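Hey, can you fold this one?
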Amino acid sequence: MLDAIHHVAMICSDYDRSKQFYSQILGFPIIREVWRAERQSWKCDLQLGSVQIELFSFPNPPPRPSGPEACGLRHLAFRVKALEPMITHLENYGILVEPVRVDEHTNQRFTFFADPDGLPLELYEDKYEHL
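Sure. Predicted structure:
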C-alpha cells in the first residue's frame, strides 16, 4: 500500500542556478549534496515538509518538452496558506508570476510560475487544509 510521496526528482540544465532557486529563493533546506563522479553528476536533496525534492545535474540533458500540456509531469504544486506573500517574494527576485485564478470546483485560488528550466510550478492556496 502506498503511504505518501517520498520525493520528486528533477534534472537541471544549470545545477547551481537551480540549487540557488530551490534552496535560497523557495527556502527548501538542503539535506545533503553529493558529487557522483561515476556519472559526472551532482545530486542535492532538499526538504519540503515530509517530501524531498531531488535536484540532479547531468552532462547535456535533453530539453524538456515545452508547455504544461506536454505529455509527462504537468506541473508541481506547492500548498501555501496565502498566495500574496509568496507572490511578492517571487516577484522581488524578478520571477514572473501569472495572474491568480480560482478553481471553479474547489473555489481555491492558485497561480503559476516557472523554475530556472521552465518547469511549471504552482502555488495553491489551501485555506481548508490543516497546515
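The chain has a mean pLDDT of 90. Let me know if you want another pass with a different chain boundary.
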